[in-house]
Amino acid sequence: MPVRVETFSRIEDAERALSANQAARFFGGGTILMRAVNEGDQSFDTLVRLTDPAFAEIRPEGVRITLGAGVTMNQVMASPDLAFLAPVARSVGGPAVRSTASVGGNLYAAAPYGDFATALLALDATLTFAGQAGAPMPIDAFMRERDRHANRIVSAVSIERPRETAAFRWLKVSRVKPKGLAVLSIAAHLPRSGGAIRVAYGNMGPTPVRVAAVEQALQGAQLTEQGIGPALAAATQGLSPPSDSLASDWYRREVAPVHLKRLLLGQTG
Amino acid sequence: MAKKPVQFTLNGDAKAAFCDDAENLLDFLRRGVGDLTPKFGCGQGTCGACTVLIDGDPHLSCLMLAEAVEGRTVETTAGLATGSAPHRLQEAFMENFAAQCGYCTPGMLMAAKALLDRNPRPSRDEVIEAISGNLCRCTGYEPIINAILTAAGTGQPRQTG
Questions:
Q1: Tens digit of pLDDT for each residue in A67-96?
Q2: A/B interface, count of CB pairs below 8 Å
Q3: Out of B22, B67, B111, closest to residue A37 by CB
Q4: CA atoms of A29 and A100, how far apart (whole Å)
Q5: CA-to-CA distance for A243 and A250, rounded, in angstroms?
Q6: In A17, A107, A130, A259, which residue has its Cα 20 to 30 A from A269's Cα atom?
Q7: What is the pLDDT of residues A24-59, one digit of tens each?
Q8: B66 near B6, Cβ under 8 Å?
Q9: What is the pTM of this model?
Q10: Does B65 contact A30 at a Cβ distance shorter than 8 Å?
Q11: In angstroms, what separates the C-alpha of A43 from chain B's closest C-alpha?
C-alpha cells in the first residue's frame, strides 16, 4: 500500500487532516515513522507533515520555557536557556539522529527510547495539543494513558526552569560506550530550597514513569548515605520493568537502586 | 503513486528531480539523482552508513523524506574531492588505513566533515562523539579516530597495535 505525504503550513490544518483519517500518522522528526515506512508498515496510509516554523521554536517566558514540539535535540543542546537539558539531549542517539529527533516525537517513543520524555516527566512538563482549548495537560497524566493520545498533535511542551542549577539531575545507564540504548534512565528534580521532589525512570515500564515511593521517601531527607536509605529501599516499588535484549526485569530491579544512589549522591561523573 | 518535484543543491550543483510520495532521501539520491555514495545499511537509523549533510548538519538520509530537502543544500561524499584531488579527510583515511570493507566510510567521512566544518581542532573525545552514530564492523574505530585527528592536525593520534 503506497503511503501518501500531506504537508501543511498551519497546525490547525494538519490536525484536521489527522482527525479525518484514522490511517494517518503525524510525522515529526521522522526517526520513528520513517523506520516504519522503510519496513513497509501497512498500518497507516498517510503521513501528515507540518512546516510551520513556530512548531520548532524555543520561547523563554519568565520562569517557564515553552518548546515547540518540533524542536530538535540539537536545538536543545544549542539553547542557552536549556543548558540544564543539554546532557539529556546529548544522550539521544548520535549527531545525525539529533538533527531531526524532536521533543514531541520523544514523548511517543516506545521503550527503550524516550530519554528526553523521562527528563520532562521529572520537570513536571505540561503539554498543549493542537485544536485543544483549556488548560495544558500534565505530562504525568499523558504518560498514564499515552495510547489514547496517539492520533493527536502535541503542539508545545512547557517546563519551569529549575531554580537551582543542581536541582535537576540526569543519568542514563547504557552498556555500550559512548552511546547505546538505555538499560534505564533516571531524571530527578531535587530542589534544596524547598519545592516538589520528583523522580522519574525511563525504560522501567512501557512508558517513562514517576516513582511515587521514592519521591515520598526523599521528602525532608538529607542526600547522604543514611538519608537516602529508605528511598533506595523503595527504588523499584510498584514498577514492572520490562525484559528485553538489553536486560531482564530482574537485572533492572537489581541495578536501579545502585544507579539511583549514584544520582542522589552526585556520583554520576 | 504520485510524483513530487524537488529542487535542491547537491554538492554545489542545482538539482531538480521527481521523488515518490514518502520516498526516503537515500533512495531518492541513489535512484532518482544517481549519487551512489550514500549507502543503505539498516534503513533504521542505526548504522549511519547513509549519513549526508543537510545545510551543514549531519542527517540520516534513510530517515529523511526526500521532499523535505526542497530548497536546501545537501552534501555527500561525491562532493568531497576537488577534481582528482581527494579531500584531506579522504587522504587521512587512506594514510591511517581507516577503511577496510569500506561500507561505513562514506557515512564516517560525512560525520567527520560535519565535525571539522564546525570545530576544526577537535579533541579525541569530540571525534568519538561525532562518529558515535556510525557503526564500523571492521576497524575497531581506532584508525578512523586517528584519521580524523590527522585531518584536523590535532597533535599525535594515539598509537595502536
A1: 999 999 999 999 999 999 999 999 999 999
A2: 88
A3: B22
A4: 5
A5: 8
A6: A107
A7: 999 999 999 999 999 999 999 999 999 999 999 999
A8: yes
A9: 0.94
A10: yes
A11: 15
A138 burial (CB, 10 Å; 0-12 / 13-18 / 19+) is: middle
Instruction: Name the one residue in this structure whose C-alpha cell is 483549556.
Output: A134
Q: Which residue has the cell 560525520?
A: B111
Show which of residues 91-150 on chain B sit within 8 Å of chain A, judged by CB atoms: 111, 114-115, 128-134
Phi, psi of B3 (to 5 degrees): -105, 145
Q: What are phi and psi of B39, to 5 degrees?
A: -105, 145
ipTM value of the model? Answer: 0.94
Answer left, alpha or beta for residue A158, where phi above 0 means left and psi between -120 and 50 means alpha: beta
Q: In what order do the strands lie in the sheet with A182-189?
A: A168-174, A182-189, A198-202, A209-210
Residue in B with minimal Cα distance to A94: B133
Q: Which residues of B touch A100 (CB under 8 A)?
A: 59-60, 63-64
| Inter-chain residue contact A95 with B129, CB threshold 8 Å | yes
Asked whether the beta carbons of residue A96 and residue B111 sit closer than 8 angstroms, the reply is yes
